[in-house]
Amino acid sequence: MSDISLTQRDSQGEARVGDFFALLKPRVMSLVVFTALVGLVVAPGEMHPLTALASIFFIALGGGASGALNMWYDADIDKVMRRTATRPIPMGRVTEGDALGFGLLLSVLSVVMLTLTANLFAGLFLAFTIFFYVAVYTIWLKRRTPQNIVIGGAAGAFPPMIGWACATGGVSVESIAMFLLIFLWTPPHFWSLALFMKDDYSRAGVPMLTVTHGRKATRRHIFGYALALAPVAVGLGFTPIGGPVYLVTAIVLNALFILGAWRLMRRSEETAQADGYGAERKFFWFSLLYLFLHFAALLAERGLLALGF
């Protein structure tokens, strides 16, 4: 009997650790980690591998802290959205107070440790990013304006700049260009999600563009942002961190991205409903691949440079 009780306690402990890990939004964190890593690696100068690894870990911790604080504040709307209803707080596995305390603790820890590991500027930049995501996007913009994801998307675009700052102690044209790539990519990425998740946002009272302006207008906005994104993405190839591999990758990906956005804009709502928003879902997933391959190409350019090519 005692063995059974011990097993039950152990499994409950593991589940609780898993619930707190879920608060960090690990899928979102993976994008934060990757883009921050690229920003650090392609920056001029050298960092000790252990220092670089520790810096990326603390950036990831800061990103996770932002996710936990976001889930704390959005607990009420997460309960009514299908996409978020199984998160730890709506399911009652973590209390709102615990999520708040956890997020604040990780915020302080990540900022202090990044400052000690890398430099003061990088630490302050991480602190500003957490503040921007939680206070500016989650608390102020998300429930007030259909431009929430446009302005708030800056928070997700800061990680490569933080990685760059870890290596250099500042910002540059290259790091700003990486920021702009993610900043302009964010609206079409999330609006394509909103096209097939509109009912969730309506039910939660979140003024996403699909709710306030409709799907037809959202499709036009996606195409417009795809056009604005292309020159920024390709232009990054002409900076010191770009090169032929990146340029070819960017040209092909942006041609496909614009074509996909054009096809979305031309689709009628009846056609979209008939196939279960299949094209919208494909565009959403392609947008993830789009961003990953751009940053992977930057890594490839850095690798070729290290090999003397």
Automatic annotation (TrEMBL):
Write down the membrane topology.
Answer: Multi-pass membrane protein
Bilayer-crossing regions = 28-45, 51-73, 94-114, 120-141, 148-170, 176-196, 222-239, 245-262, 283-300
> Its function?
Converts heme B (protoheme IX) to heme O by substitution of the vinyl group on carbon 2 of heme B porphyrin ring with a hydroxyethyl farnesyl side group.
NCBIfam families cross-referenced by the UniProt entry:
cyoE_ctaB, PRK04375.1-2
- Protein encoded by which gene: ctaB
Main localisation, per the record? Answer: membrane
Q: By what name is this protein known? A: Protoheme IX farnesyltransferase
What organism is listed for this UniProt entry?
Answer: Paenirhodobacter populi
Q: Give the location in the cell.
A: Cell membrane
The family assignment reads: Belongs to the UbiA prenyltransferase family. Protoheme IX farnesyltransferase subfamily.
Q: Can you cite an annotated GO cellular component?
A: plasma membrane
User: Pathway membership of this protein?
Assistant: Porphyrin-containing compound metabolism; heme O biosynthesis; heme O from protoheme: step 1/1
